[in-house]
Amino acid sequence: MGLREVLVERRAATVARIEALARDREGIVASASGVAVDDEHDPEGVTLGFERAHVESLLAGARARLAELDAALARAPHDLGTCEGCGGPIGEERLMARPETRVCVGCAARGSTR
Ligand SMILES: [Zn+2]
Question: What is the pLDDT of residues 69-90, one digit of tens each?
Answer without folding.
Answer: 887 677 665 566 788 889 998 8
